[in-house]
Amino acid sequence: MVRYVIVDTGASRSFPGPHPFLERASADGTVTVLLGAGAVAAYRPDPSKAAILVELGTECLGEATGENAGLEGSNTVGFARFRLGDGDPSDLVELVRQPATDPASVEVARAILEEAGLQVSVCSDFAGRILDRLIRPYYNEALTRLDEGLASAADMDLTVKLGLGYPEGPIELLERTGLHHHHDVTKALFETYGTRHYAPARRAVVAKRRAEREAGE
Amino acid sequence: MSEIRTVGVCGAGTMGSGIAIVAARAGYRVVLYDTHEESLERARRQTEGFFGKSVERGKLTREQADAALAASSSTSFLADLAECDIVIEAVFENLEVKRALFGQLDEICPDRTIFASNTSTLSITEIASGCGREDRVVGMHFCLPAQLMKLVEMSPGLNTSEDTFKAAWAFCEAMGQRPVKTKDTPGFVLNYFLVPFNNDVIRLIEAGVAEPADVDRAIKAGLGYKMGPCELLDLIGLDTQVLLCEAFYGVTHDPRCAAPPLLKRMVAAGHLGRKSGRGFFTYDRDAMYGG
């Protein structure tokens, strides 16, 4: 079993509470896991490690490691356990590699995550990784279609659940996990990609402004 | 409106075969039509396999399965649909093909026959236009795999009569399906979301963000979806996705609805999904999904 050390850099969105991944950490090991909101800032290269895992939010891994004309890559991988807003984290970890990342480091990272009962999808270092990049335009369209009155929220949610087998419709899911969080993620994606499908939908903007006002910002 | 007893289904592809199973399972006499004998033969084989699995899984008794099979027939002659009370077309997504089919059926079928279109992107009003019975045409969009999914998006065209819509709605419920009324707008609700979403998946793969298996695992583990998008695209058929894109982009001009280059290349290479044995994944059997 690979031994790994966890370095706490602040509140972690991936592991907000107890989890086997945290419990299995050691006091020393060949792998370092930078956990928490300050992981990118705390990153320092260390070629002696089999792998360094850096927890990501909406950032790219390159913000920690730097980039080099498409040749970047080392023993460092990014990771984020997928989680929608205030919802519970899922069992899915998106593991981020760069073009020249050492495949052995990817496999070590995958192994320690899977040993803790998590599922791993490997992806390249793009904003939104796999899931946010795919689902945020869908959520934006659902919010826009609701605004346009083409279907009620209940009908839209029911249609998607019955027709596509999704466990939850887009509107009820966003309401449950916090529309203002959807705003934050889409804003970050829109800044990166600049395409209108990532621009925060009106309802998300409204929710964000209300959340800010209620928080006294 | 007279009672519906005999159901015609045009198109023996994945969707048409599934719709025929739904109707036969509900006790209707079903005539499945296709111009290609090999498609009809494959549909017969898959239908037998599906009902066999339904019996194994205790969802149907042997008697029920035998009755459904006995009530199912197939033909490559359109004239054999002459006695149908409702004809559901599930041919490929091409406005002119669907309009021509309904025009031919109008000459064959009696006045009472309702024409339903399983279109997922085209306008019901445009499909009905000029067919000779615009008031008796209704949108009836089943979901893949039709034999398992309950939802049917039902859309009246601008000229659809209230009686026709009510009769089709009642028929849908009698088959054990769950109809939802939608407007006659591009993609209704489901494909409005699904077509561009699936294209985004293909573009993400083409951009090298992740492999198909990683995308599917992320969607299933992260969001709790039963099926990953690549698996679903293979089931839909990549050639069908191209047709959906062409139909949908032609109406919406939304860049997300345009067929991604990778999709076109895969279709050109014959990688059509389950039906050809290779799409985003490889398959070595053509059994129908579920049972």
UniProtKB/TrEMBL annotation, chain A:
SUPFAM superfamilies: 6-phosphogluconate dehydrogenase C-terminal domain-like (SSF48179). One of its GO terms (molecular function) is 3-hydroxybutyryl-CoA dehydrogenase activity. GO terms for biological process: fatty acid beta-oxidation. Signal peptide: none annotated. Residues 130-216 form the 3-hydroxyacyl-CoA dehydrogenase C-terminal domain. InterPro entries: 3HC_DH_C, 6-PGluconate_DH-like_C_sf, 6PGD_dom2. Pfam families: 3HCDH. PANTHER family: 3-HYDROXYACYL-COA DEHYDROGENASE FAMILY PROTEIN (PTHR48075), 3-HYDROXYBUTYRYL-COA DEHYDROGENASE (PTHR48075:SF5). This is 3-hydroxyacyl-CoA dehydrogenase C-terminal domain-containing protein. It comes from Thalassobaculum fulvum.
TrEMBL record, chain B:
One of its GO terms (molecular function) is 3-hydroxybutyryl-CoA dehydrogenase activity. The record marks 141 as: Important for catalytic activity. Residues 187-283 form the 3-hydroxyacyl-CoA dehydrogenase C-terminal domain. One of its GO terms (biological process) is fatty acid beta-oxidation. Keywords: Oxidoreductase. Residues 6-185 form the 3-hydroxyacyl-CoA dehydrogenase NAD binding domain. SUPFAM superfamilies: 6-phosphogluconate dehydrogenase C-terminal domain-like (SSF48179), NAD(P)-binding Rossmann-fold domains (SSF51735). It holds the Pfam family 3HCDH. This is 3-hydroxybutyryl-CoA dehydrogenase. The lineage of its organism: Bacteria, Pseudomonadati, Pseudomonadota, Alphaproteobacteria, Rhodospirillales.
